[in-house]
Prior knowledge:
This protein has helices spanning 8-55, 74-80, 84-87, 102-114; strands spanning 60-63, 69-72, 119-126, 132-141, 148-158. 44% of the residues lie in helices and 23% in strands. The protein folds into 2 domains: 3-49; 57-158, Beta-Lactamase, CATH 3.30.450.20. It is rod-shaped.
Amino acid sequence: MTDNHKSKEQLIKELESLRQENALLKASDARRKRADEAFWKMHERVMFLADVIERSSQPFAAVYPSGYIMTCNQAYCDLTGYTKEELQTISWDMDLTPREWRDIRLKCWLKCAARANPCAFKRSMCAKTAQESQWNYWSTRSVTVKTRFCIIMHLLQTLPKASG
């Protein structure tokens, strides 16, 4: 039926239906725009914080439960002597932790995992140069991602290189 053959009531009903549909589309578009704005605001904040961590002189690393490093900043690379690419292929637990510290480290991680709050404790680490150093670090686990975060608090001492 063409518009010319529709009654006035039918046309008014169609017009009202189109108005309602248009209002729903506008509301949907407004929600989409608000969601889009919120996304970009959050994206900007995340990128800012990522840049702060990356440029920080404070060493930082995020470690998977398997012991492999997900990400770290340049200060952490400088501390260990490894590049980011190298660090992503070695185990934080096995390659960077001296054998005699592994049980201590495990106890500390278990303590941290049992608590919702961050933990701080002393740890020893082997750098690429085989130089061992001891430092305090702060660690926590992510609630949303199964990772551990490690921020080096301060270097306690650098130990002499093991001979051999």
